[in-house]
């Protein structure tokens, strides 16, 4: 009798826990008569968890071929509906937050960037932080970044041998990390961007995988590395911020903008908020720029005609303006600009976007 009572109690507790954490589907669905997308058949609860962690692109491709542009997979009881292709993805970008919530899912970024930063902050604070970030990307600032990008690129490529084989993904990814750090985060951050810091940034980014999107606090090895890297990076950035605060020299970069910015209530950013926004800027600038550069380089190497046209255009401009490159000269590189736009159109800057 005692065993029956204990077993029943355990069953009730387990059911309550699963229900509270949305790990089992509701028993009643008031929308059962709606024309819902097909659901991929899989093991109960676990679902396609293994494939989602190991090879999400192949999982999506396989089910796209079987079910079409819209289908749903179950991940630990949560329904994940995928929209593939421009003919069905419009609603993803135009729907109201009340219909498709970005905030709810992007809370996975809190352990990456810290509390009180963007999706870890109230909407009013988040909107002001977006404005702080945009101030660091205003046209006047972008013009000043060109010289820094050119200097970083020339120094980086000067270490290449005259001929040989390189991994273009790895090389351009590393270069954009350096240029993003120098332009957005400041010379002090760039000066401290050694292999250790690059590894820390890589480990923080490692927490943004499909499972981590839904369960960012699971004690996975990638999450443990993420948290340790975040703590170490905090110490490095904290010393840089404190040094900048006591320096009489004013720099033209995002770090200086964040130090001088004030919220509507008159408060300034805390060190933790500054660090979080800097890391966000590093990720946002690094990944989109790196992926754009990688796709552009890959397609130009595949299409020698356009590669030659882009190269001839640059040689002509350098012959006319000299070896110095500034913002205005870059705007004259029409062939290269069109190549970049086309590479971004047919390539994928991001594998997937979530809401």
Automatic annotation (TrEMBL):
<keyword id="KW-0349">Heme</keyword>
<dbReference type="Pfam" id="PF00067">
    <property type="entry name" value="p450"/>
</dbReference>
<dbReference type="InterPro" id="IPR001128">
    <property type="entry name" value="Cyt_P450"/>
</dbReference>
<dbReference type="InterPro" id="IPR002403">
    <property type="entry name" value="Cyt_P450_E_grp-IV"/>
</dbReference>
<protein>
    <submittedName>
        <fullName>Uncharacterized protein</fullName>
    </submittedName>
</protein>
<dbReference type="GO" id="GO:0016705">
    <property type="term" value="F:oxidoreductase activity, acting on paired donors, with incorporation or reduction of molecular oxygen"/>
</dbReference>
<comment type="similarity">
    <text>Belongs to the cytochrome P450 family.</text>
</comment>
<dbReference type="InterPro" id="IPR036396">
    <property type="entry name" value="Cyt_P450_sf"/>
</dbReference>
<dbReference type="InterPro" id="IPR050529">
    <property type="entry name" value="CYP450_sterol_14alpha_dmase"/>
</dbReference>
<dbReference type="GO" id="GO:0004497">
    <property type="term" value="F:monooxygenase activity"/>
</dbReference>
<dbReference type="GO" id="GO:0020037">
    <property type="term" value="F:heme binding"/>
</dbReference>
<keyword id="KW-0479">Metal-binding</keyword>
<dbReference type="GO" id="GO:0005506">
    <property type="term" value="F:iron ion binding"/>
</dbReference>
<keyword id="KW-0408">Iron</keyword>
């Amino acid at each position: 009798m005692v065993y029956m009572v204990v077993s029943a109690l355990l069953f009730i507790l387990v059911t309550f826990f699963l229900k509270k954490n949305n790990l089992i589907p509701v028993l009643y669905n008031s929308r059962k008569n709606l024309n819902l997308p097909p659901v991929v058949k899989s093991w109960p609860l676990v679902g396609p968890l293994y494939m989602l962690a190991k090879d999400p692109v192949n999982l999506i491709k396989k089910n796209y071929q079987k079910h079409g542009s819209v289908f749903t997979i179950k991940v630990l009881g949560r329904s994940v509906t995928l929209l593939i292709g421009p003919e069905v993805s419009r609603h993803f970008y135009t729907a109201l937050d009340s219909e498709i919530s970005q905030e709810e899912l992007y809370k996975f970024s809190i352990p990456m960037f810290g509390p009180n930063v963007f999706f870890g902050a109230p909407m009013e604070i988040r909107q002001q932080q977006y404005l702080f970030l945009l101030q660091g990307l205003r046209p006047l600032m972008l013009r000043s970044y060109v010289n820094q990008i050119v200097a970083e690129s020339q120094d980086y490529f000067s270490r290449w041998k005259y001929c040989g084989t390189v991994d273009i993904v790895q090389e351009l990814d590393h270069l954009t990390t350096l240029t993003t750090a120098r332009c957005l985060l400041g010379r002090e951050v760039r000066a401290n961007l050694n292999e250790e810091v690059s590894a820390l940034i890589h480990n923080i980014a490692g927490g943004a995988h499909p499972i981590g999107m839904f369960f960012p606090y699971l004690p996975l090895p990638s999450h443990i590395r993420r948290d340790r890297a975040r703590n170490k990076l905090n110490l490095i950035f904290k010393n840089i911020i404190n040094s900048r605060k006591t320096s009489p020299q004013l720099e033209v970069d995002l770090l200086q903008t964040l130090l001088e910015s004030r919220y509507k209530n008159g408060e300034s950013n805390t060190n933790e908020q500054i660090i979080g926004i800097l890391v966000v800027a590093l990720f946002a600038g690094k990944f989109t720029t790196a992926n754009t550069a990688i796709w552009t380089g890959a397609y130009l190497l595949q299409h020698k005609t356009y590669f030659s046209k882009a190269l001839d255009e640059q040689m002509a401009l350098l012959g006319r303006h000299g070896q110095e490159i500034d913002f205005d000269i870059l705007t004259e590189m029409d062939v290269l600009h069109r190549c970049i736009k086309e590479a971004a159109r047919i390539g994928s800057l991001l594998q997937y976007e979530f809401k």
